[in-house]
Each structure stands twice: as C-alpha cells, then as structure tokens.
Write a structure and sequence with these properties.
Layout lengths: L4 H18 L2 E4 L12 E8 L2 H4 L2 E5 L5 E6 L1 H15 E7 L5 H4 L3 E13 L1 H4 L3 E13 L5 E14 L6 H23 L4 H9 L3
Parallel strand pairs: 1-4, 2-5, 2-6
Antiparallel strand pairs: 3-4, 6-7, 7-8
Length: 205
C-alpha cells in the first residue's frame, strides 16, 4: 500500500499536534514587587544566588504522573530580592561567587534557597482558587564564610479561579502573591531573627 504525499503530510501534522497536546506547558513567573519603606542598615551586603535558585523550576504532574506545568520562578525571585535588599541595606552587591566577597568588601553574604514549592490547582483541591506555598532557607555568613544566621521562612499566595481566563495566569498570579508575601515578611522580620539580631549588636547597630 502506498501513501500519497498529501496524506503523509496530514499524518505528520496530526502527530505534531498530538505531541503538542501532550507537552507540558512552561510558565515563566512574572510580577512586580514593592520596595519596603524602612531605614536601611548601614552595612554592605553581598548577595549570592546559587544555581538552585537561579534555575528553579517546579514540575506539576497530572494524576497519571505526566508533566503538566513547568513553573519557572528563578528570575522573578532574583528580581524580588534585588528590589527588597537595597531598601534594607545601605549597599548591596550581587556576587557571582561567594569567594568574591572579601574583594568586594562586604560585611556579610546573604544566600537564599528554595527548599520546597507546592501548587494547588482547582481541579485537584476542589477549591475555587490557585494556591502557591513556598518554603525557603535563608543563610547569612561573614565575608569569610563564617556562620551568622540560618533560618526558615514560608510564603503563601492565593488567587480566585474565576478571575483568570487561563490556568497559566492563575498560577502566575498565585506565585507572585506568594513572593509578595515573602517580601513583606522578610523585610519586617529580618532584624528579629535571633542570630541576625546578635550579629547586628556585635556591629554596634
């Protein structure tokens, strides 16, 4: 049996459409974050974003175990910290490597990481909302890598399903809401972390 060129092209098109339908959808989280209005700490802070945060992608699976959504939030996390930290410290410099800290003359290095990311989808939770929950590890060291503080923070964001025309928009806005929650809590609670407070006292601040 022979297949005409036209029929062959139709088969190829159907195959491509089938693959596209099965492919996971990638969501690059995008949002804006307000700068906190607080007195800056008179110190120079170095910030290091490891590959785990820079390239963070959460994979949401279907009930059958197939990849459904890939939620990339590394860039927007860096944007958040690059907005919040300069309001909290007199000087902030982003480090390509913690080993640069001494040469940059920083007083401390801040290294945030994402420990856990959870996504609640309306069709799975039976709630009329998209929800995002994130667990972070925040680490502060001296320029030489010596311990200053290490603590855990969580953030939560929620958006109503009916507000959005697509799941992608709902997931994006729930993630942005979680990051704004983090930004607010981080800037307010930073100096209240016991080991951070002790460090600031040693700096006579």
């Amino acid at each position: 049996m022979t297949i005409s060129l036209k029929a062959f092209r139709v088969l190829i098109l159907l195959a491509v459409m089938g693959l596209s339908a099965c492919a996971a959808r990638t969501i690059e989280v995008r949002g804006s974050y307000p700068s906190p209005n607080i007195p800056p700490i008179p110190l120079k802070l170095g910030v290091y974003y490891g590959d785990g945060l820079r390239n963070f992608i959460y994979t949401e699976l279907t009930d059958a175990g197939k990849e459904e959504y890939l939620v990339a939030s590394g860039n927007t996390h860096m944007e958040l910290f690059n907005t919040v930290l300069p309001a909290m410290f007199e000087q902030v410099v982003v480090l390509n490597d913690p080993a640069e800290a001494a040469a940059q003359g920083v007083d401390a290095i801040f290294m945030p990481t994402i420990d856990e990311f959870q996504l609640g989808m309306p069709q799975k939770t039976r709630l009329d909302a998209y929800e995002v929950w994130v667990k972070y590890n925040m680490r502060l060291t001296g320029a030489d890598g010596s311990y200053i503080a290490d603590w855990v923070m969580t953030a939560y964001g929620k958006t109503t399903q009916g507000t959005f025309s697509s799941a992608e928009s709902g997931i994006n806005d729930a993630a942005v809401a979680a990051l704004r929650d983090l930004a607010s809590n981080f800037s307010i609670s930073f100096t209240g972390v016991p080991d951070v407070r002790d460090w600031l006292n040693r700096q006579r601040i």
